[in-house]
Every structure is written in structure tokens, then in C-alpha cells.
Amino acid sequence: MRRLFAVILTFVAVFGAGWLSLRRPDIPFDTLETAYATPQSQYFVLGEGRKVHYRDQGNPDGDVLVMVHGFAASLHTWQPWVRELESTYRIITIDLPGHGLTRGFDLEQIDIDGFIWVVDQLTEALEIDRFTLVGSSMGGHTAWSYAVEHGEKLDGLVLVGAAGWPNSPEEDESGALVFRLLEFPVARSILKDLDVTAMIRSGLEDSFVDDEFVSEDMVQRYAALNRAPGHRAAILHISGTTEDRPMANAQVLAGLSMPVLVIHGRSDNLVPVRHGDEFARAIPDARLLIYEDAGHLPHEEVAVRSAGDLRAFLNDRVHRAAVAAEGPTGETIGAD
Predict the structure, then answer these.
(1) C-alpha distances in Å from residue 223, one per residue of 26, 31, 64, 189, 199
(2) Partners of 139 in the beta sheet?
(3) CB under 8 Å to 11, separation ≥6 — which residues?
(4) How confident is the model at residue 239 (pLDDT cuts 50, 70, 90)?
(5) Whole-angstrom Cα distance, residue 95 to residue 157?
(6) Most buried among 12, 68, 127, 240, by the most CB within 10 A?
(7) Tens of pLDDT along 20-36?
(8) What distance in Å separates the CA atoms of residue 314 and residue 326, rounded to the nearest whole number?
(9) Which ranges of 104-228 does DSSP label H, i.e. alpha helix?
(10) Closest by Cα among 54, 19, 28 to 40
């Protein structure tokens, strides 16, 4: 009820105080970089003004993990796992087009296919031949779609509250109110260019079991990065094109042969926990972990425990599989 009240207050404020008074200008990327870039921040230029913000952290000699965030988020969401895993692994985190400090992409490039292309271009530019791909929510949709197209490049696949499994009619009705509102063109039109901090706070609180995780710094970071030039239009574009995305089913996923870990929070209010079970059933020999005390972001809410489980999976399934695929001289069996 508190979250519904916050959303209602936003709309009351829009019509009560006046639309013009709630308009907020873009925040220049230079200003956002001062606040949210770090010494680890790097930029990959894809031509025509497109710049992808990423961080390359951890053990440079370690096995590579590439992590892809979800809708309206940024690479910051992975920092709890980076802290837990960076002593062992080389970790690449990416701001997807329309998010974070990445910039310069046209709206028609901001979709699952565009995200797959960015992951592929960046890993090729960094000369990363093999890696484990990790995706959360919309980033999970990107990750399993990448695995379908480029499975030969993956040592492993990790889906965290992954999107892309079709909702049932009941699930369509029970989703988080903030995201249900964004499905409607009129709501998207009203919200364009406005201060939606209250809605961001509500959406984040829906993402955790314990909303104490939703700090004011987190809310302000989401709100500020949402106001990067072009990002609000990108977020609304993504919200309005969900029906055009390729969806998962057993036939699509049956060909995945890499080790797969599916992680889900029991109290996920954004992607139903049933979807995690469906992914695990559809992908051959996938391992499923459900956290009873977590919501949509277990890599943040139960970071230490989930990172430990990820490490165990990598040690037991991914690296053992990689070693088994090598011949006695260290050359991959079947290589030219």
C-alpha cells in the first residue's frame, strides 16, 4: 500500500502542481561522470558517437566473468559481487545502451539484439575468447539470448531473476505497479521529462524483501543516471517494445550445452519465481538456486551468500568442464 501511495502521489503532484513545474532537464554526461565514474571506468567507442561505459576489474589473470545489468539499472548493481569475487576472477561489467554512462545509441539500437551486439563487440575488442556471461533481469534476457546465438564463446551462463519467459495472464495482472504503468503509452507520455524519483524509489522497494537496502544514495543514483541525455527516451522506448522481444521456451533453450546456473529470489515481485523454475527445466542440466529471503536482486540483497554459491558453481561445473575439454597438451579437443 505504501508503494501504491507513492505512485499515486506522483500523479497527483503532476496534475496538482502543474506539468511544467515538475519538468527536469537532462544532466550532462560530464557531470554524471564526476559523480559516478571511477578509476576503473573505461569507454569502448563503437563509432558514430557511440561510447560504451564498462569496468574491467579483479584478477587480470583470472577466468573472465561478463556481467550485464537489468532494466533502468547500471553496472553499479554488480559491485557487491565484484567485491566478493575480484580476487579470483577478471570481471567485466557493462552499462547497456540507454543506461548508466553509455551514450550515443539511436532508439532502434536499444533492444535485446542491440545489447547482444554490444556484448559481442566489447568482448571481441578486449580479445576475450571465452567467458562466463552473467545477466540480471533484462540483462538475463540478453544473456540467454546471447547464449543461443553465440554459445560457442561461453564457458558458462548465469541467469539472475532473468526476464524473457512469457507471463501468464495472472502474472501480467500482479506485476509491480510502476512497471505496469510504463506499459501504457499515455503514462509514458505524461512521465517523459518529469521528476520520477518517487516512482524510482517505489520500484526499488519492490525489488527487495528488505527495503532498508534502498538507500537515498541508491535512489538518487538511479534518478540522476535516468536523466542522462537520451536515457529517459530510451527507458520509455524499452517499456513500449516489450511485446516485440523474442521470448524463451523449451525449444529455443534446448540447444544450450554450457553449464548454466539459474538464480531467483522467492519474493521476486518483478519476474515471478516460476520463471526461474521454467528456465531451469528448459535448459539441459541447469542448476537452480532459489533464495527464500530475497527479491529481484539477490546479487545485492544476499550478496555474500549468492557470490559464494556462484563461486562454487564456477569451481564445480564451469572450470571442471573447461579442463575436461582440453587434451593432454592443453589444446582444446577438436580445435584446428
Answers:
(1) 11, 14, 31, 18, 10
(2) none
(3) 190
(4) confident
(5) 19
(6) 68
(7) 567 789 999 999 999 99
(8) 17
(9) 112-125, 138-150, 169-174, 177-181, 185-191, 197-207, 216-226
(10) 54
Report how far apart, in Å, the C-alpha atoms of 89 and of each of 57, 58, 60, 92, 154 are: 8, 6, 7, 10, 15
How many residues are present in the chain? 336
- CA-CA distance, 262 to 274, in Å (whole number)? 12
- Euclidean distance between CA atoms 144 and 253, whole angstroms: 8
First-last CA distance in the chain: 62
Give me the mean pLDDT over the 152-163 stretch: 98
Distance, in Å, from the CA atom of 275 to the CA atom of 172, rounded to the nearest integer, reads 13
Report the run of H or E that residue 253 belongs to, with start and end: helix 250-253
**Exposed (0-12), middle (13-18) or buried (19+): which is 141, by Cβ within 10 Å?**
buried
What is the 8-class DSSP label of residue 245?
S
pLDDT (0 to 100) of residue 327: 43
Average pLDDT of the chain is 88
Residue 178 pLDDT: 58
Give the residue ranges of DSSP H helices in 195-332. 197-207, 216-226, 231-240, 250-253, 273-282, 298-301, 303-313, 319-324
pLDDT at 183: 63
Lowest-confidence segment of 186-200, 246-260, 301-315 by average pLDDT: 186-200
Beta carbons of 165 and 278 less than 8 angstroms apart: yes
pLDDT for the residue 334: 33
Query: In one letter, which amino acid is 60?
Result: P
Q: How large is the greatest C-alpha to C-alpha distance in the chain, in angstroms?
A: 73
Per-residue pLDDT at 213 exceeds 90: yes
Look at residue 80 and tell me whether its pLDDT is greater than 50. Answer: yes
For 232, half-sphere exposure in the C-beta direction (CA atoms, 13 angstrom radius) is 21
Q: What is the pTM of this model?
A: 0.87
Mean pLDDT of 188-203: 79
| CA atoms lying within 13 Å on the CB side of residue 135 | 27
